[in-house]
Write a structure and sequence with these properties.
The protein has 270 residues and is α/β, with parallel strands linked by helices. It folds into 2 domains: 1-37, no CATH class; 38-260, Rossmann fold, CATH 3.40.50. It contains 8 helices and 8 strands, in the order ββαβαβαβααβαααββ. It has helices spanning 40-47, 60-73, 93-112, 125-130, 135-149, 159-165, 179-192, 199-220, and strands spanning 19-21, 27-29, 53-55, 77-83, 117-123, 155-158, 225-228, 244-247. The N and C termini lie far apart (57 Å).
């Protein structure tokens, strides 16, 4: 092999460079300067810690590709997530604590990667409607969340808007509720569903609209990381083409979603 084609070994914590040998066998540097570039693994390690991580990410290799793309374009890492609605119709202390925790997550990313992170909240108005919440309460609650989240520069949108925008591009999507999810979704429906049908039918409806909406999220935000407060058991309810980061809610070790608090039964903790 021609020595001019030989690259030096590059390690995750090293500054990359290229060295070759000249005609006399002396080592010569080609002067490629990537100083200041951090390895994707280091950025991932900065936020994929026990302080924020509920479980290990679903697709670490895909997650590293997303980070690598952000490095190559010197752009923030994009994170998107669902924000739901429970019985309350106004923002309260658990919501504020949760958004503050998200802000600390974004700061952690920025500490290791100067462009930082963008975080977008997707308000699940369709799920709230399915569960029987009235339109006024839905708007009042989500408007309050949007206003407080904007304090940190977090953007927001409505899930119904994403789904409408993706109409015609969704294609065929299977909507048969898998047996391994059925029991969990039915248990949740018994607690929160007020749509007039049985809990079993409510769970089936919930699954069907999720399958359409997840594709709409993929179309709207390709190349993003999807944050969820659910456990990995609910990975099928997350976009298939996006890496998923399983995160605590209000603080380390806490799993109950803020919109279900106060929830003494703990059934909001899926």
């Amino acid at each position: 092999m021609n020595k001019l084609d030989t690259w030096s070994d590059i390690h995750a914590d090293a500054v990359p460079y290229r060295s070759v040998s000249d005609a006399d066998g002396k080592t010569v540097s080609l002067g490629l300067n990537f100083s200041g570039r951090i390895a994707p693994e280091k950025i991932l390690k900065s936020f994929n810690s026990r302080a924020f991580r509920r479980e290990q990410p679903s697709d670490p290799h895909l997650l590293l590709r997303v980070i690598s793309k952000a490095i190559s374009t010197n752009a923030p890492i994009d994170f998107v997530m669902y924000w739901g609605k429970g019985p309350r119709c106004s923002i309260d202390a658990p919501d504020i604590e949760c958004i503050d925790f998200l802000a600390s997550f974004a700061r952690r990313v920025r500490e290791s990667f100067e462009p930082g992170a963008t975080i977008r909240l997707i308000f699940t108005d369709t799920h709230a409607q399915l569960n029987g919440h009235d339109s006024a309460g839905i708007h009042t609650y989500f408007d309050g969340i949007a206003a407080y989240a904007l304090k940190y520069g977090f953007q927001s949108c409505w899930l119904s808007e994403l789904t409408r925008a993706a109409e015609g591009a969704l294609g065929h999507i299977g909507d048969e509720l898998p047996a391994e999810l059925a029991a969990r979704l039915v248990a949740s429906a018994r607690k929160w569903y007020r749509g007039g049908d049985t809990a079993e039918e409510g769970a089936r409806k919930y699954y069907r609209i999720n399958m359409l909406e997840l594709r709409a999220v993929e179309i709207a935000y390709p190349g993003s990381v999807f944050i969820t407060y659910n456990s990995p058991d609910f990975r099928p309810l997350c976009p298939r083409r996006l890496p998923v980061f399983f995160m605590y809610t209000l603080r380390r070790g806490y799993r109950i979603k803020p919109w279900f608090l106060p929830d003494p039964t703990g059934l909001g903790n899926i």
